[in-house]
Amino acid sequence: MAAQSPPDATSSAKPAPTTKDDIPIQLFNNQLKKTDEKLEAMLKVKPRLNVGLIQETRMSKEHWKEVRRYLNEKGYRLRMKRTDDAAVIISEELEEVTIDQKETLKYHIEPDLKHHINEVRIKMKIGEVRVVSAYVPSTVKEKKQFVEQLTKALEVIGPEEELIMGGDFNMVEDNNRDSVPKRHAETRPVLTSGRLAQLAAEEKLMREMVKKHCLRDVFFSNDLKTYNNIYTNITSNGEYNRRLDRIYITPRLYQSKLKFRHLAKKTALQNKAKHHQQQQQRGLCHSI
């Protein structure tokens, strides 16, 4: 009998972990239990997705197992507990680095709010990068508590580590910039003084976090057309579009080859020079 050639070891072997810098990262804000077809679409993007940041993920035990199994078959790991409201999907192509429990952001969040955040640490050519998915609560009290705790928790990320944090923040940095009225001014309802005060307080919370950790909004652009493509929230009365879903990164990553997308939205082009200049003018970050 003729000698048989040995089986191709590479045919079923998983790819070796990579430290490349041009990884595609996608934001996906929707409940997995209702949008499996969108999850499938998310994994079909070209080039192949490496990191998915997902919010509103809480699901039944049976469905959680089903989603994990599906992702494993596609070559991804799901980082979340079944009752969590935020998750990270990470490709097996990327190398994860263990995070000491006391160095996790979740460790520094109060127990009743821990399910709003998940994270992993990966290796890239630029160094180690913390990848965070966050879902800010929608109630006024919990929203304030969570963002204040998150701002403090981010201090555990040292200067040698970079940050990618995406999520549904349920508030914006600048309501004039990040909200689009849907009607003419003369027919638009006037906001109450209480609502205006609440919006101002939320803006202050977000700006304090952004300034303290010198974060950059990757979807920011002066191009209104591009900008408008990533408005993801419409108020119940249809009056306003708000840009609640955002991805923040630390300055060094802004010069990397990372690719950011929002599911079902056009890729948001990054206007790096103008954005950096405007951030400096607003006092939101120091020079690189």
Structure description:
With 288 residues, this protein is α+β, with helices and mostly antiparallel strands. The chain has one domain (24-281): Endonuclease/exonuclease/phosphatase (Deoxyribonuclease I, Chain A), CATH 3.60.10.10. The chain contains seven helices and 13 strands. The protein has helices at 36-43, 61-73, 140-153, 175-178, 193-212, 224-228, 272-281; strands at residues 24-29, 51-55, 76-79, 86-91, 117-124, 127-135, 161-168, 179-181, 216-217, 233-234, 240-242, 245-249, 259-262. It has a five-stranded mixed beta sheet, with helices on one face. A five-stranded mixed beta sheet has the order 5-6-7-12-9. Strands 8-11-10 form a three-stranded antiparallel beta sheet. Helix 3 runs parallel beside helix 5 (193-212).
CATH fold type? Deoxyribonuclease I, Chain A
What is the level-2 CATH architecture name?
Answer: 4-Layer Sandwich
Helix-and-strand structural type: alpha+beta
The succession of helices and strands, N to C, reads EHEHEEEEHEHEHEHEEEEH
Poorly predicted parts: 1-12, 183-187, 221-229, 264-276
Count of β-strands: 13
Domain unit count: 1
Overall shape? globular
How is the topology of this model organized?
Layout: E1 24-29, H1 36-43, E2 51-55, H2 61-73, E3 76-79, E4 86-91, E5 117-124, E6 127-135, H3 140-153, E7 161-168, H4 175-178, E8 179-181, H5 193-212, E9 216-217, H6 224-228, E10 233-234, E11 240-242, E12 245-249, E13 259-262, H7 272-281
Parallel strand pairs: 1-2, 1-13, 6-7
Antiparallel strand pairs: 2-4, 3-4, 5-6, 7-12, 8-11, 9-12, 10-11
Helix pairs in contact: 3-5
